[in-house]
Structures are given as C-alpha cells and as structure tokens.
C-alpha cells in the first residue's frame, strides 16, 4: 500500500512536470536585422564621436545613448502592438 502511494505521488509529480515543460514556447525565425557586436560597437563609437557632440552642444545636456527594457516589458509591448 505504501509503495502504491509513493508510486502514485511520483507519477503525479512527473505528469505535472512534463505538462509544464514547453508551455508557451513559440518557434520564431531568426531576425534578419541582426548585427554583430563589433558592428554595434562601431556604430556606438561613431554616434558618440559625431552625433552626441552636436546634440550635447545644442541642448546643453548629455544625450542618453542607451536605455534598458526588461524582457517582460518588451513582450508586453509586442503583445500590445499585435492587438492594435
């Protein structure tokens, strides 16, 4: 009886674990707009050396050349954009 109970519990845990795996996994194609980290660094360096200097002098303040969004914020925005 005790073995049957343990077996049932383990089976239940296994079923729950398996049912949670790959839930909400979507297959997406690789974006075509990707750039290498070297290219990103070069573009950022170019921006800082050329554009940022002009923007800083015109507005008398430092321009923000980087921002951060969490994955959750980006996913929420994408979901919102898809609904619109």
How is this structure best described in words?
The chain is mainly α and 84 residues long. The protein has three helices and no strands. The chain has helices at 2-20, 37-59, 71-83. The radius of gyration is 25 Å and the shape is elongated. The chain starts with a helix and ends with a helix. The model has no long low-confidence stretch (mean pLDDT 80).
State the gist of this model.
By secondary structure, the chain is mainly α. Helices cover 65% and strands 0% of the residues.
Order of helices and strands: HHH
- The first-to-last residue Cα distance is 57 Å
Query: How does the overall form come out from the CA principal axes?
Result: elongated
Number of helices: 3
Q: Taking Cα atoms only, what radius of gyration do you get, to the nearest Å? A: 25 Å
Q: How big a fraction of the residues is strand?
A: under 5%
Number of strands: 0
Mean residue pLDDT: 80
**Largest sheet composition:** none
Helix content: 55-70%
Determine the structural class based on helices, strands and strand pairing: mainly alpha
Low-confidence parts: none
């Amino acid at each position: 009886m005790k073995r049957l109970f343990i077996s049932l519990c383990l089976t239940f845990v296994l079923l729950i674990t398996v049912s949670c795996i790959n839930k909400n996994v979507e297959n997406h194609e690789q974006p075509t707009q990707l750039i290498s980290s070297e290219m990103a660094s070069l573009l950022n360096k170019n921006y800082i050396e050329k554009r940022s200097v002009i923007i800083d002098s015109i507005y008398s303040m430092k321009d923000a050349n980087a921002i951060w969004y969490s994955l959750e914020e980006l996913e929420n925005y994408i979901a919102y954009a898809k609904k619109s």
